[in-house]
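Morning. Coffee machine broken again, so started the prediction first thing and wrote up yesterday's gels while waiting. Chain of 160 residues, entered below exactly as on the submission form.
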Amino acid sequence: MKKILFSIMICMFLVLFFGSVVKAEEPIVGTWVTVADEGKDKGKQTSYIEMFEKDGLFFGKITKLLLPPEPDNPKELCIKCSGDLKNKPMIGMVIVKNMKKIGKIDPKLGMEYSGGTILDPDEGSTYKCLMWVKGDVLTARGFIGFSLLGRSQEWSRLKK
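Came back before lunch.
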């Protein structure tokens, strides 16, 4: 009886310990809701971005657009993009590329990811990118040159 009770206590300890470790990782993988931070749609939810891992790097693609299409772009194409993305559908477009988890944790923003790029399909511009994940908030910062010369957005994890 003592062995059974001891075994149950050890199992409970392991579940609690490893459960909290998994939760503390705050993974970037999942679906995130973006919100417009400027313009006529400021404050409105704009899209779902699915972040996924491939070969140790993290990517994000648009899986859903939440605002009605513009009259001059009813098919929701990336009309301002250049190169291979010019006039391609925004849904399915990979806009976050090659992000790496670097292991640094910012006390306010969370786990840091860097080394990749982010595309702003509304402008057709690609920027260097930093991301942080803390709980259900992902902070994405696109910039040119230095991270001080850019802007940040907060994305929320999609609750299912």
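The chain has one domain: 27-157. Going to sketch it on the whiteboard this afternoon.
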